[in-house]
Amino acid sequence: MEKFIWAFIIGGGICVVGQIMMDVFRLTPAHTMSTLVVIGSILGGLGLYDPLVKFAGAGASVPIVSFGNSLVKGALLEAQNTGIIGVLTGIFEVTSAGISAAIIFGFMGALIFRPKG
């Protein structure tokens, strides 16, 4: 039960930071998301994000900050295996399943539901 509470607090805290960025600093949603991805990348590169994921579980692995962490982890892992070209290929290798799923399910949703706008 305690794990769920910490996931809620950490995940909610990340969302609060994003909301503050939009409300107080008047950043657009695109700028906010990009900033959170960069923050996740920096924390992942410094080795600080994985302990947060171990501690908070889905509260840290679901928000957009985790995407930046995944990009860096994939790049660093593949760079160790294949050298400098692995920095580029590792990014796509680690995140391709999630991005592909988002595209496929988004397309399927567009076929099933009629968008209004």
UniProtKB/TrEMBL annotation:
Instruction: Please identify the protein, giving its name as recorded.
Output: Stage V sporulation protein AE
Per the UniProt record, the lineage of the source organism begins with: Bacteria, Bacillati, Bacillota, Clostridia, Eubacteriales
Q: Which InterPro entries match?
A: Spore_V_AE, SpoVA
- Domain of life where this protein originates: Bacteria
> Which regions span the lipid bilayer?
6-25, 32-49, 84-113
* Keywords attached to this entry: Membrane, Transmembrane, Transmembrane helix
Q: Is Cell wall biogenesis/degradation one of the keywords UniProt gives this record? A: no
